[in-house]
Amino acid sequence: MREAHNAPTQPAGQGHCTEEAALEATETVLAFRRLPGVQAEPRPGAAVALWAGIGAGTAIAGAFVNLRLGVPGHSILIVLLPFVFGLAWAPRGRGGAVMGGSAFGTAGLLRFMAPRCDIGLGALTSLLLTPVLLDAALARARNGRGIYAMCAAAGLASNMLAFAMRLTAKLLTSPPVLVAAWWPRAICTYPLCGAAAGLAAAAVFFRLRRERGARHGVDRRTVVAGVSLLVALAFAAGMWRAAAGGGGGRRGEGHAAEVGRRLAALAAARLEPGSRVVVVSGELAGTQSALRGAEVRALTQGLAEAGIKVAKVVRPRAGTADLDEQSCGAGAPLLIAAAATAPRA
Question: Which of 34-48, 79-93, 259-273, 291-305 has the lowest mean pLDDT?
Answer without folding.
Answer: 34-48
